[in-house]
Amino acid sequence: MPDHQPDHQPHRPVSRRSLIAATSGLAAFAAAGGLAGCSSGGSQGSGSGENTATLPTYVPYTGVTPDLPGTDQGVDPAFRRFPAESPRSVEDIPGHGEKITGMANIYFAVPPGPDRNSYWAGLNERLGVDLDLQMVSNADYLQKFPTVIAGNELPDLLQVPNGSPPPVPNMPQLLEKRFADLSEHLSGDAVKEYPNLANIPTRHWLSTVYNSGIYGIPIPRGAIGNYHFVRADLFAKAGVSTEPKSYDEFVDASKALTDAKQRRWAFGLVNQPRQLLGRMNAEPNIWAEEGGKLTHVYETDQYAQTVTDLIAMWKSGVMHPDSFNPAQPFKQLFNAGTVAINAADGYPGWVQYQLDNAGNPDFELGLMPSYTRTSGELAQWNLGSGFFSITLLKKQDDPERIKTALRVLNWLAAPFGTEEYKYRLFGQEGVDHENDADGNPVLTPTGTANTVLPIRYLADSPYNVYVPGRPQDADTQHAYQSLEVPTGISNPTTGLYSNTASSKNATADKTLNDGVNDVIQERRPFSELKTLVTTWRNTVGDAMRTEYQDALQKAGTTAS
Amino acid sequence: MTTLENATIGDDTVRTFTKDGSRPPWMEKPHPVTQALKFIVLAFAVAVVLVPFWSVIATSLADQRTINAAGGGMVMWPGGISLDAYQAVLSGGVVTRAVVISVTITVVGTLLSLAATAGLAYWLSRPRAWGSKPVLMLVLGAVLFSPGLIPSYLVVKEFHLLDSYWSLVLPVLVNAFNVIVMRAFFQELPKELFESAAIDGVGAGTVLLRIVLPLSKAVLAVIGLFYAVAYWNAFFNALLYIQSSEKWPMALVLRTYVVNQTTIGGDQVSSGEALPPQLPLQMAILVIAIVPILLVYPFLQRHFAKGVMIGAVKG
Known about the structure:
The complex is a heterodimer. Chain A is an alpha/beta fold. Chain A has helices at residues 16-23, 27-32, 118-127, 141-151, 171-178, 183-186, 195-198, 202-205, 232-238, 247-257, 271-280, 301-315, 330-336, 349-356, 399-412, 419-426, 445-450, 471-484, 499-503, 505-520, 528-555; strands at residues 99-106, 130-137, 157-159, 209-210, 213-214, 217-220, 226-231, 265-267, 287-290, 293-296, 339-346, 365-367, 381-382, 387-393, 433-435, 441-443, 488-489. Chain A contains 21 helices and 17 strands. A five-stranded mixed β-sheet of chain A has the order 2-1-3-14-6, with helices on one face. Chain A has a four-stranded mixed β-sheet with strand order 8-11-7-12, sandwiched between helices. In chain A, strands 4-5 form a two-stranded antiparallel ribbon. The longest helix of chain A has 28 residues, at 528-555. Chain A is globular and about 65 Å long. In chain B, helix 4 crosses helix 7, helix 4 crosses helix 12 and helix 7 runs antiparallel to helix 10. At the A-B interface, strand 2, helix 4, helix 13, strand 11 and helix 14 of A face helix 2, helix 3, helix 6, helix 12 and helix 13 of B.
């Protein structure tokens, strides 16, 4: 363990246990100030079956001050405008002309290559490396990944497919064989060598721990996970509040928003009321832990209650008739005003919805808080996993190459508002972006095509709320996060690995959900819910439970 | 006496209309109701084919407001014509480059595939040709069994074809099913032709080039079209074997536009990321991708009706 004292907190190992507690909104830990939680278990334990590591010390970047500060619990800092000054966060050029290869998924149309893409060429110049990227569309990433592993054609930087846990069978064994353990470079204070990686809060690093080592860089995501987007203009038109404070008010509002003859419904996908009702009914965040024993949400009475509510809701006709189609274009329906509530969409969708509807003066985006069934109090919020994916570094014969790769990632993880960040997101002024009257960078058509390199899935800075040209949106979102994040509960298995979950759960989960969808549509009797859950438990549920409980034990989270 | 024009339907020559286009005297004039019903049925059939096409084109020209007015889906009338989607797709040169790559791969690949398939099929079609029996077994085996994803990848990798255009052609050079179809066609050629050629002392290669292939234009056109469409549409090989996005063919570029983004949820998008309105973009690129292969089709259609009958009724 490193000897240096972190500047801002007493020297204590940060363990899973204190972290999960601190981010879970348990009052005592939250009040104690978040990350510096004290731990009697955690990384101090010894023994062969352990899986603990000293996570990187968190040293927040202070070069740019947000208009509305974030919290340790995970409320994102918010900026009303793009900072006028863009300080440099990386002094030296990371590379010396080496070639660095990487592979990551891409959500966009593929950008032009470095010889015809001034943004890419400029990036290479700033990084001091020849960045050779393999881009794979996100829909195909899961198929491409195993071939790269099997062929052992590993790039220097490799994004693991998105998911918590990642959908990669036998991941610990794979990591041990092929990928570099970064502990000596990143554990504890060692990370200070890479200040922008040290700026990633400790909770995001949980998911990088395998085999008692740090095996990657997390792509951090906000604690809030999802927003409950609503069309505030449609709510106003229907004369209902966007904050239904009980089950009855919620049901009334959804009915008021629906007019099937006009092709208007409250919901476009079954998952949206399912998520809202789940919070209302106090479902656990996928798993609930008590004394080292795990219970899955499907096994709870709260879940059965949610399904009962959904049956009533489907019957009342407030869901789009095609709500059970997973390919339903729910974003387009929401933009078109066909559905008024879009409750299970990622928080970055805010910017997209505002951009899509810039030409629609009626459009007003709102966020719906979650209340419990009857008490009129805020319901608990299910926090996100805190990461999108992790970036692995290939084992190298020359340790210097690992350091170069980490320096490149450090550059790419530059915090919001810095010069590096501005270039990474918006490219060169005058070519890729222009500044508007308020100093917000706005991408040009060239920039839109050129800047979408998937480097953001190799390293990224922690999320910041910022909506170009709409300063008031920073306040709206920050207020919403400040309201909901303190009520948040974490999934106790976040950052833990279960082979069954990674390899078999997707299929079993789909079977269960197809069955439950039939129950909701009353094609099968409600009594079959039990059978479905039993089948799920026998196929994967019990195995996942055993593996996760074992992993919890090894990670020291359940030490008594 | 009325002279009759000949019309060709399949392999049969039938006599239908008189030279001046009027009905032969023994055929009755159709009833107007029958005529109308026929028209309705045919118009419906045409509409079923054309309306989706029209909708794709109209949506590709529509703006976000028109799409919103249509409830967020496909539009039938674009309102104002907006070429933004085409501009977005064609700027940056990625799509144009991909089209060039795809056209090259399709042309080169189809020619090579046809040559290889015709050669193999000819060999397998000749009775008593040396070694043709075991090879035929191999070909039939290939119809039934296909290699898995990872073995194919490893083979391509070991031949050092990764990131090479050849990886898009060589692994799929010969399609076993097409070989079987072509062999069946060759076997139906009159054997007297081969005998007379043999009497004249012509070698096997010359027989193939001078006799067999000129008589097989129909099957070559059909199999060629099969190959061309397959090369044009193939994205999965490129996804696996092509590492540099500079070398992506059209189908894979198309995929990044169409398949991605439709259902992004959760925490997937990063900060500051913004996607342009998707639907018109997707439709624009669909139009761009369909057009080349549509242009080829009419020229081959004549052979197509004949070609698909090959092997259907074999006496």
